[in-house]
Each structure stands twice: as C-alpha cells, then as structure tokens.
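Deviations from the work plan: none for this task. Representative record:
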Amino acid sequence: MDFAGFFEAYEEIIRKVNSGRLSPSDFEGTTVTITNPGMIGTVQSVPRLMAGQACIVGVGSIGYPAEYGGADPQTLAELGVGKVVTLTSTYDHRVIQGAESGEFLRLVERLLTGEDGFYEDVFASLGVPYVPVHWRRDVNPAADSDERMQKQSRITQLIIMYRARGHLIAELDPLQQEPPAMHPELDPATYGLTIWDLDRPYVAGEIAGKRGLSLGEVLAILRDAYCRTVGIESMHIQEPDQTAWIQKRVEGADASMPAEDQRQILKKLNEAEAFELFLHRRYVGHKRFSLEGAESLIPILDSVLDDAADAGMDEVMVGMAHRGRLNVLANTIGKSFGQIFREFEGSIDPDSAQGSGDVKYHVGASGKHTSRRGTDIVVSVASNPSHLEAVDPVVEGMARAKQDLTERGGDLVLPVLIHGDAAFAGQGVVAETLAMSQLRGYRTGGTVHVIVNNQLGFTTGSDYGRSSQYASDVARMVQAPIFHVNGDDPEACVRVARLAFAFRQQFHKDVVIDMYCYRRFGHNEGDDPSFTQPLMYEAIEARRSVRKLYTETLVNRGDLSVEEAEQALEQFRQRMQQAFDETKDAGREKPASVERRPPEPAAVRPPVETGVDRSTLDEVAEVATTVPDGFTVHPKLEKWLGQRRAALEKDQVDWSTGEALAFGSLLLQGVTVRLAGQDTRRGTFSQRHSVLVDRRNGGEFCPLAQLGPFNVYDSLLSEFAAVGFEYGYSVANPDALVMWEAQFGDFINGAEVIVDQFIAAAEDKWQQTSGLTLLLPHGYEGQGPEHSSARLERFLELAAEDNLQVAVPSTPAQYFHLLRRQALRDLRKPLVVMTPKSLLRLPAARSAGAEFTQGTFREILPDPRQPHPSVVSRVVLCQGKLYYDLAGRMEEEDVRGAALVRVEQLYPFPAEQVRAQLELYPKAEVWWAQEEPENMGAWYYMERVMRARLGVELTGVSREESASPATGSLTLHQQEQRKLVDRVLRGL
Ligand SMILES: Cc1ncc(C[n+]2csc(CCOP(=O)(O)OP(=O)(O)O)c2C)c(N)n1
C-alpha cells in the first residue's frame, strides 16, 4: 500500500473538511496525522500539543471513548507518540452519513471497513506500537428489549472487569518492552457488545456518580481510571467501603493538576536529576546506586511528606535500601551536599568517629520537611544493612514505639517503606512484616510502601525473579490496595501518592505504590548492564529523562511557557552548580586517619542495686494474683495463683513468679514493659499466665497491667520480622524494658539476620544502641535437636567490643535482678538470656524472699556449699541446668572434691570475679563443664577467654562433637547426660 499517497490525500481531505479553519502551518513539525472529520477539535489541538513528534490518531473514532482517539486533546497529548489505540474492522455508518461523497468517502470506507491488518501495516511501517481493538459487527441493531437487558448485565460485568483487571492493559512500563495487548476480559467483543452499543445508555447502575451514561462514556471513564498510566488493584479487598472509596476517587476524576503542583513536581525532578548528574560527573564509576530512571520517587515522597505534615502527623519514619538512598537523603531529608560529599571522599566525621562505620548508602539520617503550606514534620531514614528488606520490621517497631510514646495518641508516626521490585517479591520478611501489619501488638496504622520497580534485580529480570504477575502481589494478602504507576508520568505518580496517603489515613491499613521505571545504569555505576539486558539498555539509552519529558509535556500542553521551562532548566543548572560549589574545596582535605586502636576487653560494669522493698514485692504479688469480682478463673489456675501468692512467704519463689516480681516492680517505678513472643502470654511451658481468661465468658484480664504499662503480646509465628520489630521498638523507646521471647531458643536462628546485622553490629556500624532483651529457652532435656539449644556459641562468637550481654541465670532471683538491671541501668546494650525449661518447676531452683529485697545480679555464683579448699581438687565452672544436675549428684553421692562455680554472665566476661574464686582453690584444676556438644555451647569461648584474660588452661567436659545440637532419643539423651555428669564428678 502506498501510505505516502494515502496520507497526502487524507490531509487534503482534512483541510477540506475543516473548511479552511485548519491552516497547513498548524501541521508544521508534525510527522504524520491521520484523523477524520469527527475529530476537528482534536485535529486543531494535535499539532500544538505534539509539535515535533509523530502524531497518530485513530480513524473511526467519532464519539468513541477518549482512548480511541475521541475528541479529547489532553488524552491525545498523553498518548504521545508512544502508543496509539484505534479501531479496525468497524463500519461506522455515521461517518458515511455525515460526510461528503467522493474520494473522502471511499478512503474512509476503506479505512473503517477495510482490510484487516490495515492499521497494523500503517503503524508497523511507522515503528509506532499499536493496539488494535476489534469490534464485532452488530448483526441486528434493532435488538429487542430482552437482549437489551442482557446487554446491560454484560456491561455491568465489563465494568467489574475493568475495575478488577483494567491494570493489565494500563501503560505502566516507560520502556514499553512488551507489545501492548488487549485482555479478553476487557474487550467489549467478549461480552457480545458492538460498536452499535457505544451510544446506548447504560441504565443498570451509576458510575462516577452519574446515571444513564452511554457505554462509550462508561468505557471512557473506566479506561481513564484504570488503564492509563495508573493501574489499580483493589478488587481483592473484601471491605466494600474501601473499594468504593477508591472507585469514588478515580472514576470520572479530573486528572488535571493545578499549575503550582506541576511546578513543584518539576522542581523535585530537577533536584533529583541534578543530584545524580553531579555525583556522576564528580565521582566517575563510584558506587552510588543512582535513582536515574526512577526520579519520580522524589516527587512521590515530597507529596506524602507534605500530606503527612499538613495532616498534623509527628514524624515520617522511612526504611529503604541502597537504590536512590543518597538522593532521598539529599532531597527529602535535607542532608547537606557537603556531608554526602565528605562520605564519598571517605573522610571520617569527627563527631562520630567511634565504631567501624558503614558504607555511605546504609547510614540513617534525620531531618525536617516543610510542606508547601509551611508545616514542619520530622523525617527519619533508618540505618539499614545490605540484607534487603531486613529493615522493614525494624522501621515498623520504631514507628510503633514512637506512636506509643506520643501523648496525642493515634497513629501519628507514618512508616514509609521503599523497596526494590526483586527484593519485595523475593524476601520472605516482606510477607512477615505485612502479616504483622494489622496485629494489635504490631500495628502502626498503615504503612505506605513504594516499590521502585526498575524491572531488574541486579541482572535478574522478572521472569527469573518471581512467579507472580506483579512484584507487589504479596501485599494482596493483607488486602492492601496496589497502585501501579508509570514512573515517567510524574503527575500520575503524585496523584497516586496522594491517594495512597489518604487511604492510609482513612482505613489505617498498608497501601502500595508500585512505580514502574527503569535503571539508567547497571546495578551500580561500575557495572555494564548490556551483557545481560542488551535490548532493555538500548531502549534505556534512547529514553530521555523524566525531567526532560515532563518539561516538554508541560510546554506542549501549554501548561508551561517556554520562558518558564528555561527558568526550570536554569534552576536545575544552579542546583548542580550549588553542589559543586559546596564541595569544591572539600576534596582537598585529607581524609582523617582511619587507624583503629585494638579494643579493650569489655569490662563488667559496676553493680546496680536492684533489690526491692518487701512491701513492694508484696504489693506486686497481691496484684499479680488477684482477679476482679465476677471473674471466673480456670480451676487449675486458681490453685496456681494461690501458690504464687504464698511463694514469697514460703521462700519458694519459682522462675515465673520471680519474673512477675521483676515486671511488677519495674511497672511501679514507671518503666514500660513490653514482652512479645509466640504464646508468650501464657508461656510456652504454661508457666507465665500473664493474661487470664475467664472460664465462663472468655473475657481477658491481665493482672500486672493494673500496675502500669505492661504490654504483653502473643506474636505471629515469625522470628525474623518479630525480632526485627522488637529491636526497632527498643531503639526508639530506650526507656522501656523490651523483650522478645523464643518459643524454644533454637528458633532464634530464623532471626539470625536481625541478630547479626542489627543486635550485634548496629552500635559499631551506626552508633545505634538498643536495650533489647532476648529470652531464649535453652537446655538439654531430651526434647530433640530443635528443642535444646539456643545456640549460645553464636552469640559468644558475635560478642566483641562490648556490644552484647550474654547471661545464663540459674535462679529466679538472679533472673529478677538481671531484668531489673537491664531496665534501670543508664546503659543500653542488648541482653541475650538463656532461659530455662525444666528449671521453671525444679524445687531446687527456687529463691528465698530475701534474695529479692537486696543485692544485684551476680555475674558468677560461688559454690553455696562453700567446700573447704583443702578438699577441692577441681573447680568446675558451669552454668544453668547442668549445675543442678551436678549439684544433685554430688549431694546424692557425697562428692566433695569439686567446687561448682556458676558463670552466670559470659559476656562481658567477669574475669576478676572468676579469678577471685580460683584464688580460693589455688591447688585445684580448672574445668569447664557444659551440656552442649564440644563444638557448641560456651566451650571454645571459655577456653579462649580463660587463657587470654586469666592465663588459665581449661579442661573441658562436654558431649561429643556433633553436627546436630542434640539427639532425638530420650534414652540416648539420658545416657549422655549421665555420662557427662559422671565424667565431671569422677574425672575424665
Ligand atoms: C538478602 C540479600 N540478598 C542479596 C543481596 C545482594 N543484592 C543487592 S542489590 C540486589 C538486587 C536488588 O534488586 P531490587 O530489589 O529490584 O532493587 P534494585 O537494586 O533494582 O533497586 C541484590 C540481589 C542483598 N543485598 N540482600
């Protein structure tokens, strides 16, 4: 087909039809225009809007929905050159009737009814992506009323499908990698609807608050709402008010944006791009994980922060990974260029010269955002490790702690989590964090999630990276609405950001913005992405920045004058210049010396008096064992409460009573106590019963909560997110006693990322302190490989530079003092406690009332039998349950030659106290006894530390080395335990 001839003839026709109202000069710069007489308005506006670009508008679109090229200039402008949607194989009688005869009619006829593939050929020849929509010819236009009714219901179905699946044909990918395709459930033909139906009114219901709109108008509204540069998933939400809320705001919404908002978006894009270009030029090849290709993140954050500030919120708590982090710190938090620059130079900040530090794209910061209305809000970005998404639960914990602390109540701290698409889809902690979002112990009133969806994870594309359609699919499980948006349409991004924030405020739920974008460079700036994604990177290279595209769109739409565009460009240049100026001389400064002195061994700190008046203890015991009138306690627990009440009196305080006394006395001192874990309210071993349940009506009563803020929660069945959350909480509320309890200590391995990268290392890396306490049931009782060991060895391996406290208290009173010390000491250090299981009920492991009224936690406990040095040939250092096994057998068999010294705190190591004990028995050998296999427990640590700190060569007694922590056979366990005790008592 000779297209050139066709176009010429066609333009001629257009001019004729417009009767001279259209001057040929209006077409200047326009490569191609195909249109028809019904679109005079469009024809006039197209050249203005699309100057300099190829403009293709579908023929046969008279009165059709705007996306088919209806007379809607803005729509056409948005369509741009990228994509054209038109109709083929249609027969539009109105064109024929309304138009003139002759050449024009013949061409129109050919176009409209013409050969299938006509438009495909046209657009293919022009290299313009194109979506054909085929309409079925209506055989019987004079359908009877029955059929009309059926059609109404099919239209209703079509409407539902647009709401549910419209996002599938939305224009989300700025790179347009997949050829656009119509989805059958969105194709009117699937529902037997024809072109003849477009003008018929839809009478079955209301849409966009209007009744009786034609199908054409209905489709136009739905396509505008769901299929343009925003695709919305909300139909998985089972709450009708929430879906209706979204529909009300997007269907028939005016997408135009006030000029001042457009200027603000442009300003933020200027800042975002200028920052990256500055770093790119100044630091060629340096890793910065640039935001280029995803700059619309900055206007999104700007919008959310503005809205949060204007809503009177206290703070926005941001969690994010590497990508764009420096840009966010500079342009959202307001971190100075100078500071960022110094970090690039590798200089050490003299004010924070402690610790080993971290790479520049991990360190947190805090700043202030001032909204355009002039309201201030604090914004913090949490420090995070490389381990992607690990910071999510931490940020939630921080936000919750701050919410709990604010006297104004409500969820006035907004968590914002920024994710990569690959990480969001792949990391399980994302699901765990979402799963906790509505739970009473964890909820934060809704998090705004932004996925910076650059469609790659390092080198891995989505076909290898996920099984789900979208990176965001995991969020559907909590019925969060998901707004997919094309990052190259910054106005749409901001509209969506506003909607997301408003939804969170309204429904106090999580909400997701999935911003499709691209990554201009490799994973980092030194990486060549074309090895693995050559085609994608060809497209990226050809793509102009979102700032440039947006400026042009504004100019083309007439929203920005050429002078204003130049001013914006000038702003952009100034921003770059400012960055260069601020950092001009800094590069000449020599980086500070980075030599680190070897650390001193961590010392045991001076004791803290943690005893409590007897009257206070009695008060706590009374409150802890009293229920309100009319409350029916379970009969077994009634007995238990009675025993607990008498425990102090009888000097028979068991473990959980000792714990209750610690909690209660702290509450009376005004300390907030927070304890969370799996089945923690009752206690895995049915030992705690911190919340009683009315036998008759299921009502709950928490006795200790009568004394103060005692927040005890059964957690979701998670370790990673659950520990992360408590860690974050403890950072943000340093005055509270924050505890996480494992079901069995063994399961802490599920939270190893939080232990390694936050609990152990955060102070060293980021000077971020935490007083989190981990309660980890540990002990060899024959319960098998995963119910025996909290992996004490791992914590001891992590212990360095005074980063942790690791304790194995062996009596209720010791536990009491340890918890109180943790809450009352000025210092905040994580505390890892190996807690007991069988000792919870062991009569020998009870404490007398007087042990609670005085004293402090004792890092070591000497042998209470005080054996005479002359008979002691062996000092056996040991701990926890093994002590009771050894002491019991020594008692039974009247063994006197060994002194049992319990090491209750392993780190910081109480070297001087151990030395003092050993000095009591100068002639004795020094042994270490442990239940754990040789390659586990504290043995390697003790051997090293005793040699290094005290010059003592230890003899170790343990189970044989083993790949698995414990045997699964009770009989074998008992044999092993007996052998272990025999070896200690009788010599090896
Ligand atoms: C848990 C974890 N596994 C692997 C890595 C190594 N890694 C760093 S970035 C990255 C790709 C992340 O892709 P995406 O989440 O899409 O974010 P993007 O870098 O594209 O912004 C990988 C695999 C990591 N940091 N953390």
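The chain has 34 helices and 26 strands.
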